[in-house]
Amino acid sequence: MEKLLVWLPANVPVGDETVLVHGDYRLDNLIFDSDSPRMLAIVDWELSTLGHPLADFSYHAMLWRIPAGEAGGLLGLDLPALGIPSEAEYIAAYCARTGRAAIDPRVWEFCMAYNLFRIACIRQGILKRVLEGTAASAHAREAGSKARATAELAWRQVEEHLGA
């Protein structure tokens, strides 16, 4: 966490795009039509703010970097057998759908590291509430116990993809 706290602010990619960002854009916050592959609504907007359009998309796409069996992670699954595109295919589909040119790989990797750092921060906060006896969820201890591993995964993203 300490390394990320220093590295992330010093390496924010230059960008001039600002849009409304949901802040917690994931499948759990989407409502789909029961009869067709169509999204009907996005719920849970209390974290919304202004930010870069890749903030929500990269947060949503973190599943490709998270091990299977943890928080809906896809890493290690046989994606083609499941009919799920690879991360690269998913990014390409996003770009085609939004009219965006290819995403700079360094920007994408920064987004991945940043979002994993966010999750590690959230997990640290959950663990703090567990230790204080104020955690509401029965699964809070388990979620909080993953803070260090999540921060380590974020730092590995930086080391492996961004040369820190």
Keywords:
two-stranded antiparallel sheet, 164 residues, mainly alpha, globular, Aminoglycoside 3'-phosphotransferase, Chain: A, domain 2
Plain-language structure description:
This protein has helices spanning 2-10, 54-61, 79-82, 87-98, 105-132, 140-144, 147-162, and strands spanning 19-21, 30-32, 39-42, 49-51. Strand 2 and strand 3 (39-42) form a beta hairpin. It has seven helices and four strands. The protein is mainly α. The mean pLDDT is 91. The chain has one domain: Alpha-Beta Complex (Aminoglycoside 3'-phosphotransferase, Chain: A, domain 2), CATH 3.90.1200.
CATH topology: Aminoglycoside 3'-phosphotransferase, Chain: A, domain 2
Order of helices and strands: HEEEEHHHHHH
Strand tally: 4
Helix content: 40-55%
User: What is the name of the CATH architecture?
Assistant: Alpha-Beta Complex
> N-to-C terminal Cα separation, in Å?
14 Å
What is the number of helices? 7
Number of self-contained structural domains? 1
Percentage of residues in strands: 5-15%
What is the typical, i.e. mean, pLDDT?
A: 91
Structural class: mainly alpha
Q: What's the arrangement of strands in the largest beta sheet?
A: 1-4
Shape: globular
Q: What Rg is obtained from the alpha carbons, in whole angstroms? A: 17 Å
Name the CATH superfamily assignment: Aminoglycoside phosphotransferase (APH), C-terminal lobe
* Sequence stretches where pLDDT stays below 50 over 5 or more residues: none
CATH class division: Alpha Beta
